[in-house]
Write a structure and sequence with these properties.
four-stranded antiparallel sheet; 15 strands; Jelly Rolls; five-stranded antiparallel sheet; 183 residues; globular; alpha+beta
Length: 183
């Protein structure tokens, strides 16, 4: 479903794109994301909702922005971004499982529960799986400081914990009920 003509996500996207220009892009994007995360949190509703959990709002060589609504009780496969990521969680919560990597295999993860409103930074070397352990859909803006749609990155098979090339369709199809993911 396309965004409604009056969607607040248009203004958010424009503000983040403008913040990413020039020096101190990381700090400026983080500050703008914090403002919008707090504003959306105060509204108490999802900024956009549809069946798909992710909506691509912007992709350029220096910046990618998604609106993510995670369905409750689901965990997505471990993956990396290979670039800085800022996650502005404005509704509900996200649980991240941060994995140490040994060669091409992942090991037992560290669990991080993050409740809205929060802005989280993930470094380029982070490997994580994300889940919604709550009872309602969560809402977040995911901002990547690079073109996430074009980079060669990896996901890890939930069955074997082996790295494989990232494929967005396989990633989305790999969402499983929490507890059936090996974590």
């Amino acid at each position: 479903m396309p965004l409604a003509a009056n969607s607040p996500l248009y203004a958010v996207t424009a503000d983040i794109v403008n913040a990413a220009k020039g020096h101190d892009a990381f700090d400026r994007v983080k500050a703008v994301l914090r403002e919008h995360t707090d504003r959306f949190h105060a509204s108490g509703v999802l900024a956009h909702e549809e069946e798909d959990d992710e909506v691509l709002l912007h992709a350029s060589p220096d910046l990618t922005i998604y609106h993510i609504t995670l369905s409750p009780g689901l965990q997505y496969p471990a993956h990396n971004h290979l670039m800085d990521a800022l996650i502005g969680i404005y509704m509900g919560s996200e649980t991240n499982f941060i994995y140490p990597v040994d060669g091409s295999e992942i090991d037992t993860p560290e669990r991080q529960d993050i409740a809205a409103p929060a802005v989280v930074h993930m470094t380029p070397d982070t490997v994580h799986a994300v889940a919604n352990t709550g009872s309602a859909r969560s809402g977040a803006l995911h901002v990547y400081l690079g073109n996430l749609t074009e980079i060669d990155r990896h996901m890890w098979s939930p069955d074997s914990n082996q790295a494989e090339p990232f494929d967005n369709e396989r990633y989305l199809a790999g969402a499983r009920p929490i507890g059936q993911t090996g974590t």
